Amino acid sequence: MRISVLAAAAAVLAATPQTSLAACPLASFGEAKTQTCSGKECGPVNAPKEISAISRGLFSESIGLFINDGHARWIGIDLDRSEIVEVERFAGARFAQAKPEFRKMKHNANHYGREIRGLNSRAIEFVRKKPIDNPVLGDVVCAANELWTYVPDPSVARLIGPMSDSHSKLYLLDRGAIKDFGGPGELIEAPRKLRALLEGM
Question: What is the reported pTM?
């Protein structure tokens, strides 16, 4: 991963009190929830099948806009499968950029690519999976549980993240209950910190 991503994740961890799996065990994920919605109301649109298959877990989504159009990335945790999954998509003007890597890559069950062709579109997706064995997972569950119960203050105008050339969202999922954060621009505050934890795993 890029050095800047790793540096951001390290900064978040340095500023966050360290917890353990005992403090936030996997079973505690989503035990308490407020203001959730269903997949029909706020579920992800056009996500890769590995991401759409997550029934219990979380993932971040970044879809390029403007100069980043054609590039998208998802990274998430599937608690049912005990794995981390990352999918990167190249389409439109970015399609040719991914072609050389796709041709030479060696595919296996945890690292593979695919070419998708539609009537008027084509894309290449790279998928990477690995088992969950990271000690940071307890911190991820704790941070997710705080967001599951987060209720915005109606007296305060909704905070808007800095504009960027991407559409950024964070999804929490638990057996049909969904809670999402973000939209056009950059994630902010707690959702952004949770995404940094994901990217550092």
Answer: 0.84
82/133 Cα distance (integer angstroms): 9
- Tell me the sheet residues that pair with 124: 90, 115
Task: Please state, in angstroms and rounded to a whole number, the distance separating the CA atoms of residues 194 and 188.
Answer: 10
- Residue boundaries of the structural domains of the chain: 3-153+164-199
- Cβ–Cβ < 8 Å for 77, 84: yes
Going across the sheet that includes 71-78, the strands are 111-117, 122-131, 83-91, 71-78, 56-64, 166-174, 177-184
CA atoms within 13 A on the CB side of 175: 5
Task: Specify burial of residue 112 (Cβ count, 10 A radius: 0-12, 13-18, 19+).
Answer: middle
Across the chain, the runs of DSSP E, i.e. the strands, are 56-64, 71-78, 83-91, 111-117, 122-131, 166-174, 177-184
What is the rounded CA–CA span in Å between residue 135 and residue 53?
24
Summarize pLDDT for 179-198 with one digit per residue, the tens: 999 988 888 889 999 999 99
